[in-house]
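Dissemination and training. As part of the outreach component of the grant, students in the summer workshop were shown how a complex can be specified as a set of sequence lines and then modelled as a single object. The example used during the hands-on session is reproduced here so that future cohorts can follow it. Participants entered these lines:
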Amino acid sequence: MSAAPALLLDGVVKNFGLVHVLRDVNITVAAGERHAIIGPNGAGKSTLFHMITGRFPVSGGRISLHGRDITDMSSYDIYRLGVARSFQVTSLFNRLSVFENLRVGAMRNKGAGHAWWRLLDGYGPLRERAEEMLEMLGLTARRNVPAGLLAYADQRALEIGLAIVGGATTILLDEPTAGMSRHETERAVALIRRVSEGRTLVIVEHDMGVVFDLADRISVLDNGRVIASGTPADVRGDPAVRSAYLGAAAEVLT
Amino acid sequence: MDQLLLILLNGLVYGLLLFMLSSGLTLIVGMMGVLNFAHASFYMLGAYVAFSISTLMNFWVALIVAPLVVGALGALVEQYGLRAVHKHGHLAELLFTFGLAMIIGEVIQLIWGRWPVAYRVPESLDFPLFSIGGTAYPAYRMFMMGVSLFMFVVLYATLARTRLGLVVRAALTHPDMVAMLGHNVPRVFTMVFAGGCALAGLAGVIAGNAYQTDPGMALALGAIVFAVVVMGGLGSISGALIASLIIGLVQTVSIGLDMKLSTALGRIGLHVDGITALSDVWDISINRAAPVVPFLLLVIILAINPRGLAGSRSS
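and obtained this result:
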């Protein structure tokens, strides 16, 4: 099974009533690859993430993870197989501290999810994992601050931390640098590069600088279909992509 | 002064009782987004089940078993009822709990009849504990307070210190996100729903004999519990505690005040006797207006802050 792709989307379809959001999506992501999904607003990128993580049921097609069919699994079962995600809309637990946020994320992986009645503080590995992640995110000084009061860039960093603190091997990040300044974006890209080391990364991103800097492969989604998929060079040169989406941005990058 | 102390004690007992119901309901509403109309019905069920158990065996068995029975029923309702209805949206859930409240009410009348049952305070606790200014204070009231305080500590410790508590607190803001982090949210929902029902049942066990166990008790308390939960802010335990105590105290105080509105206003320097056009209003005695007080407070607090005292959701 080692040859099976980390993530395989085979003819995925999603309709909301009569609205066809995803028409026929085929994407293959190899293990350890950094794969970017780009496309204009409303192309269905976030919906695709919802499909992969089992948040909404698919209307058709199959999704598999390392050769295992996960199409009809629940969110938490998919997570337990090693898929974690961040949301486009900031979705931290605002009233909990930074540390507590990370503990919620780490609990399942550290075998603490079953014993629900057990004390939180009494479990060393859980605390250590959360502390380790605080360090990595550069948020140690903000340990006890409620997540809702963090600066925006720190919130986005914490979201990435939440996605990986449970030891996921496949991470889906939805526009992790949206709304950031140039400097904050650089910091976020460095963090993403570091945390995706040795993992499979799927990232939805609008910032073409980030995409071409980070991605090994790129899929272009337009109107519910993948119109191109390949290396950054392939995608950049693809005439369909140039006309449909990249336009002027591609000229600049060439 | 003694009179005031007595009223304050009663208000505290009543407020803590309200908290037992509202704490469960606020967690259910905050987490699942379900405005559970049947919550007070589980309180009533607790009282009736305790009555039957205490007739067959004794009160102490009822104190332990009745909340467990009610909690188990709650778990069944969540797992096989609410969860099936959930995919059809909030309105369907609302109607489901409304229907459930009706069914519980009717079933109780079928089994135990339409009139109050003789559910009495156990003899071992039926004595005056102390007297304040010549009025004997029943020991059972203190027992109620003790049970409520004990439950409060257990609930607080569970939420603040255990792993389940952390997951529940996280799920109060983003249940979806918690599921994305590998937690079995539907099972947590079941546990919270069952726990909330068990708490309501326990409240029924200790209040059914202190007040009265009849088929109208769910309706009478249900509306007040709703007022408490909305006033405290949906999903906020501390908000529910504050609102419970405020409403408990204010209502008990107003019941204890046997004086006309005009006299009361006169005491604080507002002389309204001259305004004859509203004489019917000024003649209302405050204790008769007591039932409206919780809702009056609710409206005032919502007018000031639509999220309630400490709410995280504004829905």
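Chain A has one domain: 7-253. Students were then asked to discuss how this feature might be tested experimentally.
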